[in-house]
């Protein structure tokens, strides 16, 4: 996959990870200074529209995705943040890449403290509602990582991880449990809102069943969901 294809994949993943629950007005306010056009902002109907405006103004392109990283950090979306960092590491081979001119570009948002605090209040409330589900998912992931052994690659394939991601995980550590845990974490980070039902479904897919790991691990999830 070439640079531009990887960049398109990144944008699609970011749009999915932010999902329909992202406050578009906050995003527009965040990039108001950089876009610098009330008319253009008034026509924005989706995050994809915002991304298009950022690209038109050369604030975002395949070799510099720092504005997406900053937005993810601002909105406290750890999955989106990790996806951008993964792109920087795997595609650009630089955890903190410079722009074409050689300087590292960081966007300075035009957002006042009152709006920022209002957003934080809403964000905190949403985070609290998701804490229980996230905790259960973390426990299921840890249980599976401890028990799946070398067959974690089979499950990773069913979960949609790419071969380059699997290879990177294997190079980063020789510890099987760490490899399995990392694969599951990347799945969570790149797919946004995931559930234990989705994990259970992957364990029941043909490849997992063929390798005999579905039933072996099923109680790792059942014991937590009950």
UniProtKB/TrEMBL annotation:
Example of a GO biological process term: signal transduction
Pfam families: Death (PF00531)
CDD domains: Death
Chain ranges of the Death domain: 137-205
Domain of life: Eukaryota
SMART domains: DEATH (SM00005)
Protein name in UniProt: Death domain-containing protein
Organism: Stegodyphus mimosarum (African social velvet spider)
């Amino acid at each position: 996959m070439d640079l531009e294809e990887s960049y398109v994949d990144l944008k699609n993943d970011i749009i999915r990870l932010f999902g329909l629950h992202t406050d578009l007005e906050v995003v527009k306010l965040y990039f108001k200074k950089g876009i610098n056009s009330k008319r253009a902002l008034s026509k924005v109907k989706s995050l994809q529209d915002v991304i298009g405006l950022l690209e038109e103004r050369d604030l975002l392109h395949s070799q510099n995705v720092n504005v997406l990283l900053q937005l993810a950090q601002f909105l406290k979306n750890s999955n989106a943040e990790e996806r951008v960092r993964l792109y920087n590491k795997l595609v650009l081979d630089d955890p903190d890449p410079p722009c074409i001119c050689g300087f590292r570009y960081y966007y300075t948002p035009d957002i006042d403290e009152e709006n920022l605090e209002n957003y934080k209040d809403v964000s905190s409330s949403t985070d609290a509602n998701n804490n229980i589900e996230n905790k259960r998912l973390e426990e299921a992931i840890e249980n599976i990582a401890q028990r799946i052994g070398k067959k974690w690659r089979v499950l990773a394939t069913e979960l949609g991880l790419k071969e380059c991601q699997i290879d990177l995980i294997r190079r980063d550590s020789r510890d099987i449990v760490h490899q399995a845990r990392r694969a599951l974490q990347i799945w969570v980070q790149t797919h946004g809102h995931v559930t234990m039902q989705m994990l259970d479904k992957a364990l029941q897919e043909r490849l997992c069943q063929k390798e005999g790991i579905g039933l072996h691990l099923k109680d790792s999830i059942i014991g937590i969901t009950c």
